[in-house]
Structures are given as structure tokens and as C-alpha cells.
Specification:
This protein is α+β, with helices and mostly antiparallel strands. The chain has 3 domains: 4-60, Beta Barrel (OB fold (Dihydrolipoamide Acetyltransferase, E2P)), CATH 2.40.50.140; 62-132, 5' to 3' exonuclease, C-terminal subdomain (DNA polymerase, domain 1, Orthogonal Bundle); 147-211, no CATH class. Helices cover 46% and strands 17% of the residues. The protein is built from 9 helices and 6 strands, in the order E-E-E-E-E-H-H-H-H-H-E-H-H-H-H. The protein has helices at residues 62-71, 79-89, 91-99, 103-106, 114-124, 147-158, 165-183, 188-201, 207-217; strands at residues 4-12, 16-21, 26-30, 40-49, 54-59, 141-142. Strands 1, 2, 3, 4, 5 and 6 form a 6-stranded antiparallel β-sheet that branches. Helix 2 (79-89) packs across helix 3. The longest helix is centred in the C-terminal third of the chain and has 19 residues, at 165-183.
Length: 218
């Protein structure tokens, strides 16, 4: 079973992450954190083995991983539902909601209704406090600056009147993402402010990354 992975980010769009490890093997992981391609990342992993497939779910600390594994043992809760609940509510909120039997908070997670909230409390009430024994220390990732990136920075400093390549790339990414969103029926006026906000908060290198994050906000 895979429990932890460390490597270089090959692809990340806020849904899938492909991590190239030192062995040369690239692992595809469900991960809602958008990481810069080329950066180093360390993730705790929950390895879910199904009859016809295997799935890896990534977490920034051990407590989240253990809590996810508890959630998947609840009747009617699958791995994708458990992951969505954890990413939307946060580990501490789920723990407190179950311990205090706060159904209203649990129901704020997508797909969780009255019945599911009751089942979560019933199945986890006497178990979930144990999740706090696990560390919530965050794993870290850091940028790796390649020689090409260094040359681009030096060129920008030497020629300050020209637009940086990063700005040009951002504009192109917005245009490509805007076209994709318009094809899905969303108006330009609605999409542009959200896209600009996402670009200011996250390092986006592909239009599909931006589309994914924008659609989560609309």
C-alpha cells in the first residue's frame, strides 16, 4: 500500500496531480491543491484498491488521511464523496460536527443530506475523536527554478519596458479558459472577474487548470 509520496509535479489542475518520483515512476493522484508544475511536493496518500481499479488520494497532513479513511467506512460513503466532504468542510469541522451531532454543518458538504448526516454521526460518534491523535503538521512543497526560468527573469529586468512572458501567458490562459467557459454557456462578464481572482491566488500554467477552478466558483 502507498502511504506517502515525494516527487516533482508534472501536472496539476486542482483535480488530478501527476507526481514524478525519484524512481522515475509517475503517480496520478486525486488532489484539490493546485501545485506549480516543476515544483517539489510531498503528500500523504490513501491508496484505495477496488475490484477493477486503484485510486490514490492526496493529503497535506496525516490527520486528513486518517480522517478520510474513517469517512470511507461509513455506510453509503465512497472515496470520492469522502474526499469531497473533507476538502469542502475541513477536517476539524467534520470532527467537531460529528462530536456535537451538528447535522446542519455536515449538510453543507455537496451531496450530504439529512440521512447521510445522520449516518455519519451514527457510525463515527465514538471513533472520530481518535483522529486528533494524528499529526496535523502540513507537508511542504517548494518551487524549483530551472535555468530557463532564471534567464526569463534576467531578461525582464534588463528590458523593463517590455511585457513579461508571465503576463503574456496569463492573458493567453484567460482567453483560452474564457472560450471554454463560453462554450459551456457562461457569460464573459461573469467569468473574467473570477478568472482574474483565481490567477491572483494560485499559480496557473494551463487553461484547463483555470477552467476547473473557475467552474468551482460560479
Amino acid at each position: 500500500m502507498i502511504g506517502f509520496l515525494n516527487g516533482t509535479v508534472v501536472f496539476s489542475d486542482g483535480y488530478d496531480l501527476i507526481l514524478n518520483t525519484s524512481t522515475g515512476v509517475g503517480y496520478q493522484i486525486f488532489c484539490q491543491q493546485v501545485l506549480a508544475e516543476g515544483s517539489k511536493a510531498s503528500l500523504f496518500i490513501s491508496h484505495v484498491i477496488k475490484e477493477a481499479s486503484q485510486e490514490l488520494y492526496g493529503f497535506s497532513n496525516l490527520r486528513e488521511k486518517k480522517l478520510f479513511e474513517l469517512l470511507t467506512k461509513v455506510k453509503g460513503v465512497g472515496p470520492k464523496s469522502a474526499y469531497s466532504m473533507l476538502m469542502n468542510l475541513g477536517g476539524e469541522n467534520i470532527i467537531n460536527a460529528v462530536m456535537m451531532e451538528n447535522k446542519a454543518l455536515l449538510k453543507k458538504a455537496p451531496g450530504v443530506g439529512e440521512k447521510a448526516a445522520s449516518q455519519l454521526i451514527l457510525d463515527l460518534k465514538g471513533k472520530i475523536a481518535k483522529a486528533k491523535m494524528y499529526s496535523d503538521a502540513m507537508t511542504k512543497w517548494e518551487e524549483v527554478t530551472s535555468p530557463v526560468m532564471t534567464e526569463q527573469v534576467e531578461l525582464t529586468v534588463a528590458e523593463p519596458l517590455e511585457k513579461s512572458e508571465v503576463q503574456v501567458n496569463d492573458n493567453q490562459i484567460i482567453q483560452d479558459a474564457l472560450m471554454a467557459c463560453k462554450e459551456l454557456g457562461f457569460s464573459e462578464d461573469k467569468i473574467i472577474p473570477i478568472a482574474q481572482k483565481v490567477l491572483a491566488e494560485a499559480q496557473i500554467q494551463r487553461a484547463e487548470q483555470l477552467v476547473h477552478l473557475v467552474l468551482k466558483e460560479v
